[in-house]
Structures are given as C-alpha cells and as structure tokens.
Amino acid sequence: MIRQARAAARNALRTGVILFVFALVATALLVFTFSRTESTIERSEQAEKLTLLGQVLPPALYDNDLLASQQGVAPHELLGTRQPSAMWIARRGEAITAVVLEAIAPDGYSGNIHLLIGIGIDGTVTGVRVTAHRETPGLGDYIVRSKSLWIEQFAGTSLTRPEARRWKVAKDGGQFDARAGATITPRAVVKAVHGALHYFARNRAALLAEKAASGEETAP
Amino acid sequence: MTLQEFNTIFQNGLSKQNAGLVQLLGLCPLLAISTTLVNALSLGLATMLVMASASGAVSSVRHFVPHEIRIPVFVLIIAALVTVIDLLMNAFVHPLYLVLGIFIPLITTNCIVLARADAFASKNRPLHSVVDAIAMGLGLTMVLVVLGGMRELAGQGTLLSGIDLVFGEESKQFVLHVLPDYQGFLLAILPPGAFIALGLLIAAHNWQKARAERRLHAATPMPA
C-alpha cells in the first residue's frame, strides 16, 4: 500500500519535473529569440510608422522629425479611444502646419478599425490611412490604400466641406461613396474621421498650446 | 529511410490522409483565410514550416516525454516554435509579416499540427516525422490554394490579387482579371462560400477515389 503510494508520488514528481524542464527550455528559447529580435522589430515598426505618417501628410507640410514630435493624447469619445493615443505634430520651420491623430472606428463590421488621420492647421484633412482592421477580406477591406483608392476621398474635406448632414456614405444621403454589399465598414470610417475633425476643432487651442508653452512655436 | 517509405508518407499526406479533404482537420484557418489565392498559399506554406519544425522537435524528444503529459508538452513545443517564427518573421521579413502576421499565431491552434505531432512524430524517427509534416503541409496547402482560387474567382473575378503585398509593388501586373467588370459574388467570399466550396472539393475527391476503386475491381477478376 505504502509502497504503491510512494511509487505514485515519485512518478508524479518525475512527470512534474519533466514538464517543468520543458517549460523552462521553451521559455529560455523565447527569451533568447525575443532579446535578439527586439531592436530589429522596433526599427522596422518605427520605419513603418514613419512611412504611414508620410502617407497622411504631404511632404511639403513638414521638415521636422515626425517621430520625435510624438506626444500622448488622453482617451476621448470623439476619437473612439479608451486608452491614451498618440499625436504627431508637423512643422515647417518653426510653425505648426498639421497634426496627425490616431483614431478608432469602433463600429466596423468586425472589431475596431484603427485610423491615422492627418489634419492641417486650418482643419482640413490632409490624409487618412487604416493601420489595423479585421474587416472581411475581399469585401470590406477596400478601405485599405493598397486595395483601392477609396480612402483618398477624405483628403481636402473639413467640417464645413461637406456640411455636417453630408458627412455620410452615399447610401445614407452623404457624399462619400461605398461599395454595394459593404456599407458598414465605410460608414464607420466616415463617422470616425468626422469625429476626429470635431475633436480637433474643439481641442485645437489646447493641443497646439502645449507646444507654445514649450516655447518653440511662433504664430501659425 | 527507403524510397518506398518516402512514397507512402507522401501519398498519405497528399491524398489518402489529406488533412483538408479526408481528415477534415484544421478547418478554421482553412475556411477563414482561403478568400484569395495569395492568402491561402501564404498561410499554407507558413503552416507547413511550423509543422515541419514542430514534428522534428517532437520526434527528437519523444523518448523523454511520459505518455500522460505528452499533449501539454507538444502544445508547449508548438506554441514556442510558432512564437519564435512569428518574432523572426517580424524582425527579418517585415513586409511579409504584415500580410501574414495575423495568421501566424493562429497556426498554434490549428489541430493538424498537434494531430501530426501526436499521431506520427511521437512514434517515428525525426527524418520520417519531418517528411510526414512536409507531405501533410503540402496536401493542406494544395487544398487551400484550390479553395482560395475558387473563392477568389467566384467572389471577385480575379486571381492572385494581393500578390503585391508579398512580392512588392512591381508584381501587381501579375494579378489576373479573369472576369473583367465583374460585379462580385458576396457568398463566395463570406464563410458559407468556404463551406460550399470545400464540400464540392470533398465530393470531387470522393468521386475520383470511388472511380479509381471501381476500375481496380473491374480490372482484377479477369480469368486468363
């Protein structure tokens, strides 16, 4: 009896130790790979971010280091964010010419659509790009620039152009077109861009004042 | 490893025990990703790579793993390998990672990887296990590619769309607009289209198998 129990206990211990060793080896492997790839991954992510920022801002608008201009923005309903997001400030010479905001369209067809929205100092959209989404491939994913030119129609829009009631997809009587069968996705993007413009209009002074306080800005 | 063993393993993987058509394993990625040919091919090859390394690893340590805890250990090995491949791809082939990125972690949950580790690699030598994993992966990739091609053609009227995401902007010219001015067919792209297309493929596979058997029966009982 006792011998049996002892054998069982020994067996359990042995099994546990083996499992532990495997977990240890796997963890060590992951730590090693992670530490070896971390800096490379960070570099390619920075480069990718810079490319994306370059796509929502015309090159003529800025001559500063965009990545260095990054600052935090508190979560806000109009941006669709629940966590602090990032904002980049474009300058030409000393003057601020545009900002790039991160926004989330929470009401896409499947999950959040993450957007990067460039807004000129006068409140005009300079460009919009989708950075992450889970819309149906081949159907709702035409909002991505690599699949179609759809997202380009936001450039040049503002709160007054078109007026508020036309800030919708064509199907809802607005000015932004959408493909038949996939209206939910563009509807969410249009709403999110409109929201971000409102956010910028309301918080413009505060967003840009921070910079004035740091003593770098002259009048725009 | 003899040539005959090699042939048997490959026949099993490609046809007799095909993961997609016969064992019906790993259907989740099969149905979710096969919306276009390029997506299907990319995921198929990534799965094959993971299967080959997982089977090789499992087979090499098979004598040290007690029977009762083999499944957790195999899952641990597979998950660790997938994460390593995920990190390596993110670091060194970043453009490709951006396309495949979301599918790679999904491979961990693909039961075909665990199934081959348990059913084959835990009982066979490393070389055999790796060959088996490659054969199974190839079989799955073939099904994925046919399925992706069917759905892309029916759904969008194109073939190879999205190839520029893998091979760069210049390769865009290879996209075949088979049906110009095609309006698109929603059903083919949505999940039900995947089930219908897979059903058709399985039916075709079974029909071809049944015909081959009938021929065999018709040919053998011929007295001289």
Key terms for this structure?
heterodimer; A: 220 residues; alpha+beta; 2 domains; 5-stranded antiparallel sheet; 2 helices; elongated; disordered C terminus; B: 224 residues; mainly alpha; 11 helices
Q: If you had to describe this structure to a student in words, what would you say it looks like?
A:
- The complex is a heterodimer of chains A (220) and B (224).
- Chain A has 2 domains: 1-56; 60-213, no CATH class.
- Chain A is built from 2 helices and 5 strands; from the N terminus they run αβββββα.
- The radius of gyration of chain A is 25 Å and the shape is elongated.
- In chain A, 39% of the residues lie in helices and 17% in strands.
- With 224 residues, chain B is mainly alpha-helical.
- Chain B has 11 helices and no strands.
- Chain B has helices spanning 3-16, 27-33, 37-60, 70-92, 94-100, 104-108, 111-121, 126-156, 164-167, 186-189, 191-219.
Instruction: Work out the largest interface and the residue count of each chain.
Output: A-B, 24 and 36 residues
Percent helix among the residues of chain A?
Answer: 25-40%
What is the percentage of strand-forming residues of chain A?
15-25%
Largest sheet of chain B: none
- The helix/strand series of chain B, from N terminus to C terminus, equals HHHHHHHHHHH
Instruction: Please tally the helical runs of chain A, counting DSSP H or I stretches of 4 or more residues.
Output: 2
Which value, in Å, is the CA radius of gyration of chain B?
Answer: 19 Å
- What order do the SSEs of chain A take from the amino end to the carboxyl end, as H and E? HEEEEEH
Q: What form of chain A results from the Cα inertia axes?
A: elongated
Shape of chain B: globular
Total number of strands of chain B: 0
The stretches of 5 or more residues of chain A where confidence is low (pLDDT under 50) are 212-220
Main sheet properties of chain A: 5 strands, antiparallel
Q: Give the number of domains of chain A.
A: 2
How many domains of chain B? 1
Low-confidence stretches of chain B: none
